[in-house]
Amino acid sequence: MVRKILFALLALGPLVVVLDRAGLGDIELFVLAALALIPLAWLIGEATEHAAHYTGPGIGGFLNATFGNAPELIIALFAVHDGLTEVVRGSLTGSVVGNLLLVLGFSLAFGGSGELDRRSSMISLGLVGFAVLLFLIPAIPGWHGDPDRHDLAVISVPVSIVLLVVYVGVTLFSLRRHRQQHVSDDSPDMAAWSFTTSMLVLGGATVITALVAEILVGTLEAFAEKAHLSDFFVAAVIVAIVGNAAEHGGAVVVAYRGKIKLAAEIALASGAQVAVFLIPAVALLSWLIEPLALSFRQVEIFALAGATAFTALILANGRSSKAKGIALIGAYVLVALAFLLVGDR
Q1: Rounded to whole angstroms, how far apart are CA atoms 52 and 199?
Q2: DSSP track, 15-54
């Protein structure tokens, strides 16, 4: 049923593009574009999963990292092009925090009691913690003076390169660790699409996502003004949730079906992937448009560090529970309120 609904909602993507050309209002366009990104993100994830079935875990992992984050990456690059640097950083920060607190929280709340892969969880949280420490290098100087000055963008380059190297190293380690556990999935769903079909769907969905993301970014400021919200809050909470909506829903569904270990793995690995892969990728690719400094604000650094520490504390004994899930959701609400109160600079 959910799949059928998502397939039907794919029509929203082309519809948004047409309505944009027809001159629909910014508020309506923002809402429709945000909704359209949800089924598009799901389709990209589906196609990536089917393609990975034929390529094996190595290339499959690369495809997941590249295309799984495509909506967020495209949104970020369009925001860079439009000079909305706070929107870029806010959406990326919000994505990490959302995975660690909101997605994991709902997963534990719906999944209930169960055993988690403590080692894998701590590796993911360790990656986020390491990323936060490196973010301090360009962030602290940005707390005084112009946070978008060129020297901070320059400093962000080696930080980004180190994070990407660490990401590759940890990914290879994880592949070796799970190699013996890997079993090819020959289920009808997975074998339904050929590799060519998967790649064509990936390409088409990515193009439509780019068009919709451009509309979303172009109408974000008007929506924020009409809703009396800061651009930063809209990016860090609304855009961050929308960009991950399909993946978030998937983790919760998996948890509801009793696979709490897998659900937690999805949430934590997604958060780590954004921190050590997507953020540095955006920073490096931004040099093709306008150099982006990873000069995160104090509230963003505190949110990232606090979310990482609190999640590590919650998962310290390697067990899940509904109470822990509720605590994580509560922590996310507090972070969202902080983002709301600090607003733009």
Answers
A1: 10
A2: HHHHHHHHT--HHHHHHHHHHHHHHHHHHHHHHHHHHHHH
**Torsion angle of C-alpha atoms 85, 88, 94, 99, degrees rounded to 10:** -150
Residue 198 identity (one-letter amino acid): S
Q: Hey, is 258 helix, strand or coil?
A: coil
Query: Predicted confidence band at 65 (pLDDT cuts at 50, 70, 90)?
Result: low
CA distance 247 to 235: 18
Which stretch of DSSP H or E encloses residue 114?
A: strand 114-115
Amino acid identity of 262? L
CA angle 268, 265, 58 (to 5 degrees): 100
Assign a CATH topology to domain 2-342: A middle domain of Talin 1 (1.20.1420)
Q: Which residues pair with 271 in a beta bridge?
A: none
Rounded Cα gap, residues 294 and 153, in angstroms: 7
Task: State in Å, rounded, how far the first CA of the chain is from the last one.
Answer: 44
- Structure-block tokens of residue 151: 């020297």
Between CA 319 and CA 317 the distance in angstroms is 6
pLDDT tens per residue across span 94-146: 999 999 999 999 989 988 888 888 888 898 999 999 999 999 999 999 999 89
Amino acid letter at 235? A
List the alpha helices (DSSP H) in 143-194.
Answer: 150-178, 188-191
How is the chain split into domains, by residue range? 2-342
Q: Which two tokens stand for residue 71?
A: 């909506």
The alpha carbon dihedral of 267, 269, 275, 277 has a sign of negative
